[in-house]
């Protein structure tokens, strides 16, 4: 892997991490972002404000979690990131403590089908059972909730999404947070219950999304 490719990827990791703060998906240094470059995983460090990260702060680990670059310690949520890279074709992972998504994680075991954009995450979004942050147990719960999906909620904690690129993983986080906000908003109207989509309606939307952008 060339130095150049690593520097460019680090730049995108830091840029995406800063976006999670400016877009209000995390507060301070909570949440974390990673990208896979060959057999390396570049990941945001633990406890350093993203606006202070420089090109020289590259933190890289191999798929076993052994640090191979950098002096700053990798995020404490490294086990979740690594599990996704080991088990899927992900090139990027975004973890946040977005307000509406975290609120929903405390109320249900699956985000009700309030909008067809759930299809963009592979189907109804599950909530992984609670486990202490940074543990292999939490990473295992997350993997279960991600089965057939590219995103999930973590009970009393936040969101995890992955994608083929940092932009795609980030967009999935934004869509997930937005859907949670819609569901919370609709369910907060006294005396009324939001209508939900059926599995068949979601399948139909998934089919159409798959054809999105193709010439007709
Ligand atoms: Zn977290």
Automatic annotation (TrEMBL):
Signal peptide: none annotated. Keywords: Lyase, Metal-binding. The keyword Metal-binding applies. It comes from the Bacteria. It holds the Pfam family Aldolase_II. Residues 11-184 form the Class II aldolase/adducin N-terminal domain. The keyword Metal-binding applies. This is Class II aldolase/adducin family protein. It comes from Streptomyces gobitricini.
């Amino acid at each position: 892997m060339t130095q150049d490719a690593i520097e460019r990827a680090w730049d995108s990791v830091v840029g995406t991490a800063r976006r999670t703060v400016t877009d209000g998906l995390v507060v301070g240094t909570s949440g974390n972002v990673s990208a896979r470059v060959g057999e390396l995983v570049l990941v945001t460090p633990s406890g350093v404000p993203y606006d202070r990260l420089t090109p020289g702060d590259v933190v890289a680990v191999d798929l076993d979690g052994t640090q191979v670059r950098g002096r700053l310690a990798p995020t404490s949520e490294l086990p979740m990131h690594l599990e996704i890279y080991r088990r899927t074709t992900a090139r990027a992972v975004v973890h946040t403590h977005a307000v509406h998504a975290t609120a929903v994680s405390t109320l249900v075991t699956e985000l009700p089908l309030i909008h067809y954009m759930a299809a963009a995450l592979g189907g109804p979004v599950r909530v992984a059972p609670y486990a202490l942050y940074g543990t292999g147990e939490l990473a295992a719960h997350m993997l279960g909730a991600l089965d057939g999906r590219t995103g999930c909620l973590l009970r009393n904690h936040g969101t995890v999404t992955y994608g083929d690129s940092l932009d795609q993983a980030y967009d999935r986080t934004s869509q997930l947070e937005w859907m949670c906000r819609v569901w919370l908003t609709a369910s907060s109207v006294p005396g009324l219950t939001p209508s939900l989509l059926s599995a068949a309606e979601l399948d139909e939307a998934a089919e159409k999304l798959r054809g999105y952008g193709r010439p007709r």
